[in-house]
Amino acid sequence: IDKNSKILDIGVGEGWFASLCLSLGYKNIEMADFGCSKKFSDIKDRLEQVKSIYDIETSIKDLLLQEQFHEQYDFIHLSHVIEHIPKHDLIDTIDSLNGALKKQGELFLRTPNMLGPIAFNALYCTAGHEYGFVPSNLKQFLQISNFEDIQFHKINADNKTLGQFVGSLIRKLYTLNAKIKFRAFEGYFPETVEPELVVSGKKK
After folding, report:
1. pTM
2. Of 111, 47, 122, 33, nearest to 79 (Cα)?
3. Residue 56 scores a pLDDT above 90
4. SS3 195
5. Which of 6, 19, 148, 156 could form a disulfide with 28 if both were Cys (CB 3.0 to 4.6 A apart)?
6. How far apart are the first and last CA of the chain?
7. How many angstroms separate the CA atoms of 91 and 198, rounded?
8. Which pLDDT belongs to residue 174?
9. DSSP code per residue over 35-75
10. Are strands 73-79 and 101-112 parallel, antiparallel or unpaired?
11. What is the predicted pLDDT for the residue at 62?
């Protein structure tokens, strides 16, 4: 709601999320990635809403542990970043994300779902993928690092064509079948078997 909220986008890619924040009227956007300043220096010079651009030299953890990032942000966004972090570094990295948030600040993550229909492709589609997540282990990592109000979200896209409608119907049948399979063999329904995990959590 507050357009002055301080937002940090980590692993910005082509800058789509920052662009979305800009179009929605947010005024305090910061970006961090490997080689980020070289890629987006012209953006920072032309847009006053983009306050800072940071280069990740070694790791996200090492960047955020610097004092200038301590309890600075209302919202941190990582889209398809966390699966690139080695397992031995995950808890420390998520701890550093928590440390960079203000009290009740929100972390928003997107990552492939290993319970999804193309789990092996999601894990091995690039040599840079280090670790795979399902709802239960991702929730555990967030709880260990003092996040609360952890919620999984589903992003719904409008079906604008007949082909998209048919595809949506087939996906719904597939996910129902997958949930029944988990119930039959594991004794529970997973929170989501969608191809992507979209999760948020608030700093305690």
Report:
1. 0.91
2. 111
3. yes
4. coil
5. 6
6. 20
7. 19
8. 87
9. THHHHHHHHHHH-TTEEEEEE-SS-HHHHHTSGGGTT-EEE
10. parallel
11. 97
